[in-house]
Amino acid sequence: MMRQVTSVRAASAGLLALVATGAVLRWGFHTVVRFGNGDEYHYRLQTAAIHAHGWSFLRELAQWHLVAEPDFPAPYRWGTLLFGNVACSIRHVCDERSLAWVSTLSGVAVVALVGLLALRLFSRRVALFATALAVTSPLHLELGRRAYADELHTALVLLSMLALSHVAEAAPSPKPARSRVWLGIALLAMTLAWSVKESILFMLPALGVWLWRLRSPAAFSWKDALTLVAPAALSLLVFAAVNRGLSNLPALFEATRQSLHHPYSIAFQAGPPHRPLVELFTLSPGVFALLPVAVAAALGVLPSPGLGERRQPKALAVTLLLMAAAFAILPKNIRFCAVLDPLARLLVAWFACEVLPHAGRSVSLWCASALLGNAAFELALFHRTFVASSVTDPTAHAIFRALQMIPADTRRWHPTVLMNLCSLGSAGLACSAAWADKLRRKSVIAGLLVSLLAFVSPRLLRPAQGAPSAATSNTMLAAPANPGPTP
């Protein structure tokens, strides 16, 4: 009993340490001084108008939007304005940096929610592995320092999935009050998700399957359907109350639909259905190379004797596939489907911890070595793509130019000290694991290979001339002639 309590405390301390590491990384990279002239600029204009004139100005803001900037995010996203207004009030200045702080805190929440979801669905070991993977996600490190709404939306969707997992497994519940609390959290999180980005509409089938597959036996009732639909109505009611009616809502929706035909969307956000997965693989090859095998294992395609019930991993795999299918028909920009990244890391962590064979005393050392090696590589990809190359919008064109997949004028780039420390730690743990295996020949060879890869992989990103000096693709975006809405 004492050993079990100690194990729980150690796992809790490990999760807290990993979340703290994610927070420190995101705070350290919160250094953007050049924000984009697209969505970031227009989010700031709208938030500044509400901050200066109050919520009673929303109707005038919507009318101004239809005239001056119909191709950009519409002000019916009152949740984005709400969180941005709070940040502006705390900092006493309303600029892109205030909105970026919302993203930074949301990024820390994403890391924590990945750990909580893994604890809810799987085990403490999976939770530690998944949280460690989430800490260094290049996409979310970048979104956590920008003035976009995508990181906040991802955090709200993950919170919705966590709450819905409690709702799904609550009946019959010995504590109905707790079940009602989680239902309330699910409704609140989904309502806010609707108010931040309406793309949650395309996730509703996946969330419905999430509820259905998590139940044992699988079931879906009219109450579940109401739980999924009610947040949309609640979000509209809040908008109608603040906007003094819904008269301009059809025009706002039409403007959003027409924005899909903007020259920037056509040039940089088009492509085949699987394009977002290609971009995610480019930024996180270690995770997304394992994802197809993890999905196959979760769906039962791969035989895994002794694995037991696969209800939770199957629910996660099907939900991930449905979300990926939904985003296949939307504009192709990986920040729009950022929620796929933490869900993929959850599934890969389950596969690595529960499906792959584990034996011997050095397992934890090898796992830590692999995680640190992956961290070094992902940090190198993030730094090369978004910091050194100044990418402001993670489209395929910008990412591929930054990584020299499309030739461009270049400058030199060097791996940072943090990447070298991760590489050194990975190599040290690999050698320790080889030593713990009593210096067996295969273990020593594996340790030497891990050490070599840990030091070489970040440097593989440095071509002869270095990184592009400007990989952003915002040249087709322009700020409106009107500097902002006026009362």
Could you explain how this protein is built, in words?
This protein is an all-alpha fold and 487 residues long. It folds into 2 domains: 12-356, no CATH class; 361-476. 67% of the residues lie in helices and 1% in strands. It has 21 helices and 2 strands. It has helices at residues 2-28, 39-53, 58-68, 78-91, 96-121, 124-135, 138-143, 150-168, 176-196, 204-214, 222-243, 249-259, 263-268, 275-283, 285-298, 311-327, 340-355, 363-387, 396-402, 417-436, 441-456, and strands at 410-411, 467-468. It has a two-stranded antiparallel ribbon with strand order 1-2. α2 packs across α4 (78-91) and α10 (204-214) packs antiparallel against α16. The chain is globular, with a radius of gyration of 23 Å. The chain starts with a helix and ends in a 19-residue tail after the last strand. The relative contact order is 0.11.
